[in-house]
Specification:
- Strand 2, helix 2 and strand 3 form a beta-alpha-beta unit.
- Helix 1 packs parallel to helix 2 and helix 7 runs parallel beside helix 8.
- The chain is globular and about 45 Å long.
- About 45% of the residues lie in helices and about 15% in strands.
- By secondary structure, the chain is α/β, with parallel strands linked by helices.
- The longest helix is centred in the middle third of the chain and has 16 residues.
- The chain has eleven helices and eight strands.
- The structure holds phosphoenolpyruvate (PEP).
- Phosphoenolpyruvate binds next to strand 8.
Length: about 250
């Protein structure tokens, strides 16, 4: 019922030429089922380029960050309305790199979650624990704190048009993927946390897994009942790698 979403977070990678080749390859090989949606999130300078390329296709466009402000004297910032204006439908908020490298705590992330929605965009709220937190048995507490900040700021109704990405920090870009069981356990916990607020919204929301997803492990992850696709970093930069993940999802529908 929820269908899969396979989202590529290009991070700070790309060029006009590389993006053109990447998007051409994705468009040429995207699985022909509407049960698997594809999303690409290029760096800001290339949003307009990629918007033009995916226009009219089934590949959607997202951004990697958003300002908490709507407009004004905020040098270097980009408003949600601008991202909507250039064709974005989604915005990643709270990626662990932004939390760790740019000081975005859960309150700031919650403001960004709200800013995305005020601009009519779907936030992809990233949550996840560090290795130290997992080993200390604190995974669920960390996830709850990250989730509750957005729930507190935006309310459960806001989750009717949001996506959550569970990304264990220790699995991002490390080649160490969570096992399907580890991922499913946390996804179930997240959905149960939302169920306590609103069962309908919990049943409808897509919860993606992120952290070293590749073509050969995607099927094992996505076949779990609470895993609705992936947020993909490294493997989103080559058409064949990204499409192998999309195909793994398509094989399950
Ligand atoms: C990410 O940065 O969101 C991510 C999941 O990266 P990778 O797939 O490279 O681990």
């Amino acid at each position: 019922m929820r269908g899969y979403l396979v989202a590529g977070n290009w991070k700070m990678n790309g060029s006009n030429a590389a993006n053109a080749a990447l998007v051409d390859g994705i468009l040429a090989g995207a699985p022909a089922t509407d049960q698997v949606e594809l999303l690409v999130c290029p760096p800001f300078p290339y949003l307009a380029q990629v918007a033009q390329m995916v226009d009219g296709s089934r590949v959607m466009l997202g951004a990697q960050n958003v300002s908490v402000h709507e407009s004004g004297a905020y040098t270097g910032e980009t408003a949600g309305s601008m991202l909507a204006d250039v064709g974005c439908s989604h915005i990643i908020v709270g990626h662990s790199e932004r939390r760790a490298l740019y000081g975005e705590n859960s309150d700031i992330v919650a403001e960004k979650f709200r800013a995305a929605q005020s601009a009519g965009l779907t936030p992809i709220l990233c949550v996840g624990e560090t290795l130290e937190e997992r080993e200390a048995g604190r995974t669920e507490r960390v996830i709850d704190e990250q989730l509750d900040a957005a729930l507190g700021a935006a309310g459960i109704a806001a989750f009717a048009s949001a996506v959550i990405a569970y990304e264990p920090v220790w699995a991002i870009g490390t080649g160490m993927t969570a096992t399907p069981e580890q991922a499913q356990d946390v996804h179930r916990h997240i959905r149960a946390r939302l169920e306590a607020e609103d069962a309908g919204i919990a049943a409808g929301i897509r919860i993606l897994y992120g952290g070293s997803v590749k073509g050969d492990n995607a099927g094992g992850l996505f076949s779990n009942p609470d895993i609705d696709g992936g947020l993909i970093g490294g493997a989103s930069l080559k058409p064949a790698d990204f499409l192998a993940i999309a195909d793994a999802a398509a094989a399950l529908v």
